Amino acid sequence: QVRLQESGGGAVQAGGSLRLSCSASGYTNYMGWFRQAPGKEREGVAAIATADGSPFYAASVMGRCAISVDNAKNIVYLQMNRLKPEDSAMYYCAAEYGMGSSLLDPQWWRSWGRGTQVAVSS
C-alpha cells in the first residue's frame, strides 16, 4: 500500500489561492484529491493519470483548480485559485485507483493520506 503525506493547507480569504502537495512513497497509476466538509460525504475534487498527466476535475472546481504530478518525486499538486468559502474542507490525497466506474468516487481508491485542512473565509 502506498503511503501518502499531504501538505499546503491553511486559512485564506475568498478569492485567494493555495497549493496542496501530496508525497507518495511509491509509484501509483492514478493520484487524486478528495475533500470532506463537516457533516458531508467525501467528494472527489481532481485526479490525474500519472503515466501521461491526464487530469480529471469535478464540475465544482473546473477552471479554478489544476492538478499536476512530478513523477520523478512521486508528488502530486493541487493548485486552487479563486477559492470560495464552500471550498473549506479537509483535503485528502488518494492513490491506487481500482479501475472502478469513476475516478472521482472515493470508494475505488485504496490508499489515503491523513488530510490537510483548508479554510476559506468570506
Short description:
The protein is mainly β and about 120 residues long. The protein contains no helices and eleven strands.
Summary tags:
122 residues; mainly beta; seven-stranded mixed β-sheet; four-stranded antiparallel β-sheet; globular
Total DSSP E strands: 11
The multimeric state of the shown protein is single chain
The coarse overall form would be globular
Structural class: mainly beta
Describe the structure.
This protein starts with a strand and ends with a strand. It is globular and about 40 Å long. It has no helices and eleven strands. A hairpin with a 6-residue loop joins strand 4 (30-36) and strand 5 (43-49). 0% of the residues lie in helices and 52% in strands. The mean pLDDT is 96. Strands 2, 4, 5, 6, 9, 10 and 11 form a seven-stranded mixed β-sheet that branches. With 122 residues, the chain is mainly β.
Describe the secondary-structure layout.
Elements: E1 4-7, E2 10-13, E3 18-24, E4 30-36, E5 43-49, E6 55-57, E7 65-70, E8 75-80, E9 89-97, E10 109-112, E11 116-121
Parallel strand pairs: 2-11
Antiparallel strand pairs: 1-3, 3-8, 4-5, 4-9, 5-6, 7-8, 9-10, 9-11
